[in-house]
Amino acid sequence: MNALDINFEKRKRLERDVNVTYFNRPVKIAFLVPFDENQENHKILDAVFAYSYSCWAGTRFIILKLNSNGELRNSEEVEWLSIYDADVVYSYTSLTAETVNSIEKFNSPANLIKHDFGRDDYRSYIPKIDYYFSPVGSISTIHSPSIFSDNPFRRDVGVLKIITQNDPADGDRFVADNFGNQVIRHNVLHEIPGLLQTICLTSESTPENHHVGTERVHSLAELLSILAKRVAYPVSRLAALHSEEMSVINSHRIGSAFSLVIGKAVEDRILFWSLRHHYDLRHSCLGCMIISPDDINDELLKELGGYLNNNNFTGEGGSNSVSLVSRSLSKSKLNSEFKDAIQKHTYNTVRVCNGLIKVK
Predict the structure, then answer these.
(1) pLDDT tens digits for 282-336?
(2) How do the domains of the chain map onto residue ranges?
(3) For the domain bounded by 252-352, which CATH number is listed?
């Protein structure tokens, strides 16, 4: 039968009823990035992180590693791509024909996009996906009742407080990596009257007449203290809400402890992002965090301990746990320089991960 044989004037009822259900879900994006240690690749991650935090469920986007030949690093990367089933696969380098065939076989995305660097400035690294479609923004979740579900006593505040950072120095990625620093792409996060206020990390030398935030703090320790007390929330919380339909990579071994990545290498940052897929991000606890060894001091560790005490309740046998992990630091270095220093500030049990975690 062809279309001309159909008589639209004599419609017939189906022999049985068909129930159709539908729901809205976030778009799923897989970023393919080179993992060699250089500033170019750090800038790529800067752009990918910032873009992801600005999207609804952007914390659930995945980042997979490509080697210098344009191939997925190993079979685990292919397996994860298959589980995730991305709508868009976005690569920051040329792919081999074999890699393209693997992506088509195991994922078959609606779009396979190669990044066009174009102009030679920071904007050259920003994902160019809006040409094809524009993902729903993370700011869309700001009115969700879930935003206060962990602290109902703050519902009377009315206006949500979000943490942000003003003009971070080159290489200062603590806020941008862990929490996000914008909800609207390409725009600095400022107060939106009647909708949100900001608590901004900024230098003490920032002039008072510079509008950088509704309130100011001047150290990472102060910012962690605010998060620990749930006075304000990170952008990452907005970007994680109502993402239940996104694939979660279940791993009891990883998800049974808060993961603290110590390091600042490209692979450390990718590991941190990947570890998020082992946690239920509907809850206020971040599940994992990354800290550069350069940022660690006793004041910061004290507030980190406070955050873990107030927010981390993952663990086995009634003991809340923290796993230290790194791609760039040895197990012995984690044990000798960081484990005890963190342990003295928290009642969580702090352990060094036995070997490097394989994310799969």
Answers:
(1) 566 778 999 999 999 999 999 999 999 998 887 776 678 999 999 999 999 999 9
(2) 29-125, 138-240, 252-352
(3) 3.40.1010
| β pairing state of 62-66 and 111-114 | unpaired
User: Per the CATH hierarchy, to which homologous superfamily does domain 29-125 belong?
Assistant: Response regulator (3.40.50.2300)
> How high is the pLDDT of residue 327?
93
SS (H, E, C) the chain: CCHHHCCCCCCCCCCCCCCCCCCCCCCCEEEEEECCCCHHHHHHHHHHHHHHHCECCHHHCEEEEECCCCCECCHHHHHHHHHHCCCEEEECCCCCHHHHHHHHHHCCCCEEEECCCCCCCHHHHCCCCCCCCCCCEHHHHCCCHHHHCCCHHHHHHCCEEEEEECCCCCCCCHHHHHCCCCCCCCCCCCCECCCEEEEEECCCCCCCCCCCCCEEECCHHHHHHHHHCCCCECHHHHHHCCCCCCCCCCCHHHHCCEEEEECCCHHHHHHHHHHHHHCCCCCCCCCEEEECHHHCCHHHHHHHHHHHHHHCCCEECCEEEEEEECCCCCHHHHHHHHHHHHHCCCCCEEEECCCCCCCC
Identity of the residue numbered 152: P
Which of 126-140, 166-180, 283-297, 316-330 holds the top average pLDDT? Answer: 166-180
Instruction: State what percent of residues in the chain have pLDDT above 70.
Output: 86
Q: Write the burial class of residue 130 (CB in 10 Å: 0-12 exposed, 13-18 middle, 19+ buried).
A: exposed
pLDDT for 3 = 45
Closest CA to 66 of 55, 82, 81, 52: 81
Mean pLDDT of 96-108: 90
* Domain 29-125 and domain 252-352 have a common topology: no
270, two tokens = 């990718």
Give the span between the Cα atoms of 97 and 193, in whole angstroms: 51
Q: Span 225-232, mean pLDDT?
A: 90
